[in-house]
Design brief:
The chain has eleven helices and eight strands. By secondary structure, it is of the alpha/beta class. Strands 1-2-4-3-5-6-7-8 form an eight-stranded mixed sheet, sandwiched between helices. InterPro entries: AB_hydrolase_1 (IPR000073), AB_hydrolase_fold (IPR029058), AB_hydrolase_sf (IPR050266).
Length: 272
Amino acid sequence: MAIASINGVRLFYELTGGGEIPLVLVHGSWDSHHDWDLLVPHLTKSCRVLTYDRRGHSQSERLPGQGSVREDVADLAALIEELRLAPAWIAGNSFGASITLRLAGERPDLLRGLIAHEPPLFSLLGGDAAVAPMLEEIRQRVGAVVERIALGDHAGAAEQFADTVALGPGTWARLPREVRQTMTDNAPTFLDEAQDPEQIVFDLEWVQEFSRPVLLTMGDQSPPTFGPVVRKLAQAMPHAEVRTFPGAGHIPHVTHPDAYAEAILAFVRKYS
């Protein structure tokens, strides 16, 4: 167990592997560094892998008051510098991918390249009449989850999020008990994220000058709102490649860790 004091917050992290390539994994909402447990063993021969609990999640400190995505980006930058991993490859899932993309725009010097899976940057789809009904449906479903957290029903909110927003009907019942408990424990931080006015805001100009390799990924079983976001990013980023994982959804590192690890390692080796 290791703790780093970053931007006034105690962050839990693990650094494993004997490889020469530094690789940082950034988890999404509701989760913890354990979200990557099935993936990390595939990576440690080639990479030195950093996983951590983002502020407000699991073993990292949760501060009172409204948080922001800007703080998550600053934490990621400072942790990379504190552990002397720069420049590093960074892979982010969901909201972790949003954080990674923001960091690429703000501190490209810290990255060798990035892998981003389905960032929920739905502001990029504003004005697109074709996806407007889907976005409104997602907004209502997330709103119902947020209301449930505010009422104190954290387990019910986590189940509702898994089954109706991110992973699909019946997913909650199939998740391991420890994963369900992690999501329940981290529900207050999702409420905090949802109340951040910048949560889903993104300007493509932030990453148009990013010159390092970019792999944008999605699953063909994911909610249909993520594909248009990935395509918007791919059009804006000059060095982006796109890969779709057959049979996978929003968490390929959990459901398809072999294929996801192979994709990461192949991409990293290609540009190392």
